[in-house]
Write a structure and sequence with these properties.
The complex is a heterodimer of chains A (191) and B (274).
Chain A (H helix, E strand, L loop, with lengths): L7 E6 L3 H8 L11 E5 L9 H6 L5 E4 L10 E4 L5 E4 L5 E4 L11 H12 L3 E5 L8 H9 L3 E5 L8 H9 L4 E3 L1 H9 L5
Parallel strand pairs in A: 1-2, 1-7, 2-4, 3-4, 7-8, 8-9
Antiparallel strand pairs in A: 5-6
Chain B lengths: L4 H17 L8 H15 L4 H10 L1 H12 L9 H15 L5 E6 L5 H12 L6 E7 L2 H9 L1 E3 L3 H10 L10 E4 L2 E4 L7 E5 L11 E6 L8 H14 E9 L14 E5 L4 E4 L3
Parallel strand pairs in B: 1-2, 1-7, 2-6, 7-8
Antiparallel strand pairs in B: 3-5, 4-5, 8-10, 9-10
Classes of the chains: A alpha/beta (191), B alpha/beta (274).
Chain lengths: 191, 274
């Protein structure tokens, strides 16, 4: 672990990401010392069914992010559908209705770029399975800001396009299986 | 977090924008304004935010270009149809009891929300007695709102939203198609005052029965959100209504007690008796 203590985890995924999150998030301890911020592409008109789905299975609190809410350790925040989720310099969360990025709102790039800017080396960012390029630019921003960049192994991901694009954009990113990602995150609290 | 050089540049740019032109973005939520400024800097071809600032100070043309990036929101007509359905079914029955009405669309951008309300009020027989105020800080957005012209390919979505709002007519009754554009009926804006007004710096200008301000507050930091909610409180008639965006609320505001939740799920509030 680097000298900079992690201050937040950001996770982005698209096609197949719900299953991947069901493997990662329920494995995390309730003592996780950082907030987890999640962007998953879902159809814009659908209510976010992911929150209740995961809340039932996680030891962490799971909720939809609210505008200008401070991000608390041990809480998983999902971007609401049809809004971008951003991180402010003081660690609070913002929503925006700005234009779609990669045909998506929320967009992983928007979350990762703002979080990289706000948290620098204190950010751990993970790109999961997906069938488009969102997240690649964001992961590069995370790596450039000194944060930890992780990508789900494209070989075993449900959809390889997104993790492969992220690996191309940020070649230094660590490639891990879902179990390894869960283990890595669980260890964040351990000195 | 220590400020980077770029953060300092952005702070200075916002000061320049205020000092030179009195556009006050200093209390906008920083993450999103920074993203927009970066986008403007890249697309306008400046090597740094400082270079953009120098041009801004000396060339008003840069102001217009920058404002386009900092303010323009692409919205939809009848975005979140359930909000408009709640206005139709729950708020308008109260408004109907007044002989004349004032409605303020604060931060009207290109006018999608304004025309939605104008159509809704006409369908419900209230249009004739209503004066609408449509305000924004961006003069180009106000011009676009006043023109009421949208790309024709957006009409499918607008129409779908309109139908879901409990429509009594067809949206196509209100526009004509012309070379890929939908031109809205100008009688919809016969009773609309389009005006430059800044929620960050300007004051109360009329007493309203309904204020609709959706997905504007999310761009502001907490102190500015609070200022604006105070402005809305002071602008509303007794028992007047305030509609916010689906992810906005009064919950964290010091003005929360001035309002009662009216339709909770749709973020529609009602001014309490003072």
């Amino acid at each position: 672990m680097s000298a900079d203590r992690p201050r937040a985890v950001a996770i982005g995924g698209s096609a197949g990401a719900v299953q991947a999150l069901l493997q990662i998030l329920p494995a995390l301890p309730h003592t996780l010392p950082v907030p987890v911020l999640v962007v998953v592409h879902v159809p814009p008109d659908r209510e976010n069914a992911l929150v209740p789905l995961l809340a039932d299975r996680c030891r962490l609190e799971v909720k939809e992010a609210e505008d200008k809410e401070p991000a608390r350790p041990g809480v998983v925040y999902f971007a609401p559908s049809d809004y971008h989720l951003l991180v402010e310099a003081d660690g609070s969360l913002s929503l925006s209705s700005d234009e779609l990025v990669h045909h998506s709102r929320p967009s992983i790039d928007v979350l990762f770029e703002s979080a990289a800017d706000a948290l620098g080396p204190g950010l751990v960012a993970i790109v999961l399975t997906g069938a488009n390029q969102d997240g690649a630019r964001g992961l590069l921003a995370v790596a450039r800001a000194g944060g930890t960049a992780i990508v789900e192994d494209p070989e075993t991901a449900t959809a390889s396009v997104m993790p492969a694009a992220a690996c191309d954009a940020a070649p230094g990113a660590a490639v891990m299986s879902l179990d390894a990602i869960a283990a890595h995150l669980s260890d964040l609290g351990t000195p | 977090m220590t400020d980077s050089v770029e953060d300092l540049e952005i702070q200075l740019l916002l000061e320049a924008l205020f000092g030179r032109y009195h556009y006050d973005f200093r209390n906008y939520a920083r993450a999103s304004i920074k993203r927009r400024i970066t986008q403007a800097r890249q697309n306008l071809g400046f090597a740094s935010v400082s270079a953009l600032q120098a041009s801004l100070l000396h060339d008003p043309a840069t102001l217009a270009a920058l404002l386009g990036y900092l303010t323009v929101q692409v919205s939809e007509m009848f975005r979140d149809p359930s909000y408009f359905r709640a206005l139709r079914e729950k708020v308008l029955p109260h408004l109907r009891t007044y002989p004349s009405l004032k409605v303020w669309v604060a931060g009207c951008s290109h006018g999608e929300e304004l025309y939605s309300l104008a159509v809704l009020f006409r369908e419900e027989g209230l249009h004739e007695r209503t004066l609408f105020y449509a305000t924004d800080i961006n003069p180009e957005a106000l011009r676009a709102a006043e023109a009421g012209v949208y790309p024709l390919d957006r009409m499918r979505k607008f129409t779908e939203n309109h139908q879901k709002s409990g429509a009594k007519t067809s949206l196509s009754d209100y526009y004509v198609a012309d070379y890929g554009r939908a031109i809205f009926d100008k009688t919809l804006r016969s009773q609309v005052v389009f005006s430059d007004h800044s929620l960050a710096t300007d004051a109360v200008f009329a007493e309203m029965h309904l204020i609709s301000c959706r997905n504007v507050l999310i761009y502001f930091d907490r102190p500015l959100q609070d200022r604006v909610l105070g402005l809305f409180r002071d602008s509303l008639a007794r028992q007047g209504f305030l509609g916010l965006g689906a992810k906005e609320s009064l919950r964290f505001s010091s003005h929360a007690e001035a309002f009662a939740e009216f339709v909770r799920d749709e973020k529609i509030y009602r001014r309490r008796e003072p």
